[in-house]
Amino acid sequence: MAQAVASRVTRQTVGAVADGAFKVLLAAVYIAGAAPLGRLLGTPAWLMVVSGVALLTGGGIEIRYTRSRSMRTYTRLMIAYDSGWVLTALTGLLMARQSSTAGGEVWMGYQTAAPIAFATLLIAAAPTQMTSGTQPDTSD
Hints:
By secondary structure, this protein is an all-alpha fold. 71% of the residues lie in helices and 3% in strands. The chain contains 5 helices and 2 strands; from the N terminus they run H-H-H-H-H-E-E. It has helices spanning 11-32, 34-41, 45-64, 71-97, 103-124, and strands at residues 129-130, 136-137. The chain has a two-stranded antiparallel sheet with strand order 1-2. Strand 1 and strand 2 form a beta hairpin. The protein is elongated, with a radius of gyration of 18 Å.
């Protein structure tokens, strides 16, 4: 009798895929609306496109590696990424409130560099170890 093998999908896995999908969606918005969003944020359109490509790459890698990296690794990277996201957003907002034109560039600079750093660290992380069953070992 053939035994069906089903992988277990946890909330953390769904969260990691959703995080990657959000980055891919945001990338599409940045690329498609580069000129108007660039004017709104005070950044050149090319920076919006480059940021979109970085987000698309980072989000795609994040989705691709969900099954081969531990959720502990994902969680740590997402916390670091999102913490930087909040701090950069606040910095950009404070700069804009002080009439600085660099707030949007700081924000978009983070949106360009952070997904690439996230993806690089994710690729460099050790793959999950498969236990005797079909479940990945999520302990680090």
